Amino acid sequence: MKNLLFFPILYITLNVIVAQAAVNVDYITIDGLDYFKEHGDKSNPALKSINSFASRALKLDKPYSVINTTVIPPNGDKREYFSYAPYSWPNCDGIPNVTDPQTQCPYETRDGKTNPDVKNLSDPSDSRKMIDSVVSLSISYELNDGDIAENFARKAVQLLDVWFVNENTSMLPDVNYGQVQRGPGEWKGREEGILDLRFYVYIPIAIKILEKSSAWSDYVEKGLRKWFSDFSNWLMNSELGKGVAKRSNNHATFYIAALATYLDFAGRTDEAKNVIKTFVDTTFQDTILKSGEQPKESKRTKPFHYQCFNLEALTYIAILSQKINGINLWETKTKFGGTIQNAVDFLVDLVDKGKVKEVESVLLPSLYKSRDYYGDKSGKYSKILNKLLQETDGAIEWWTVYSPKSLEGIKTGSASALLGSSLYGIFGLILGIFFAF
Question: Which residues belong to the signal peptide in this entry (predicted)?
Fold first, then answer.
């Protein structure tokens, strides 16, 4: 029988985006946090630093909210989430007297090249920082006791209330204006905009942690469950949501990961199971060749990155499906005979043979989760984990805290170095740069 996540992993990265720290979670459980709390070194810099991050969140004078935007969404409602298509650039060739490229020039896509003016909108960064703060605060609550812990919880609950529940400040449960394509004519959201909110899958676990605190309330809980239920309905019934569901690449995979998470959180677990089952019977069938290559991702401008990116979502779905007693995605084969393990092995071999010309550490999220399920008799996963951890220690600011199982085969030097110097060595890993898809 395969090994399950009885001691789940907690894995963290710090991405510096526009000179701001963003903590992006990959997979987190209360069991993993409690194990660290019981067995971890209280003087460890990792613990101190995550508390430091949460402490900064405590000092926020103005909670994050979509209504703080200075750029009004196309329909005039500040409660709409609003972002620009990141890879879109104006082409003003042949257009005379251009005074406003955003409305006068058609926009064209340059895959992988982010237009810097997407930063002019505050919703994407505020949304990300809200998630970072809530997760950091909830983890600090779990790892501390007494009044200190309650202070962390109280602030996290406030941030959740303002962003999701309060009728005057909350975001509407849709992404009608996500990744808007600018240019002449009506500005409309795009299917890709749904991925802007893929970090929201970590809100339910933060809530699971916070509901034990004295700061928690039925009002906030009911509001959150209603918001995510309504958002699930929008994802399933809107033209944008249905469009993403029909895609054949990582967009659909992350869509399913999010939708199933939200449905389960909203108490609609049977629907979550059905969503995953339908995905497995359809879209998943085209994702992995027998060789392990992911053809829908390998043709992109950064083939290694996008294959890792899609695999990260697939492994997340596999764990979620286990949690809700759904289909075993770990063992399911595509129509080509490929499995998640084949996909992991394909990428591991590329790294091992020195064939990757991109950042290799993006493999870590799916690699450690796959290693926990499939095991590692040959030691090849441990070998690559060691390699990537040693290369990323300090170089691009990666740190990890593993469960005992995940430490098997990991050299003491690399693990202790990461644990000893971690700035955020406590919780979850990348979903890539914010507009990495």
Answer: 1-21
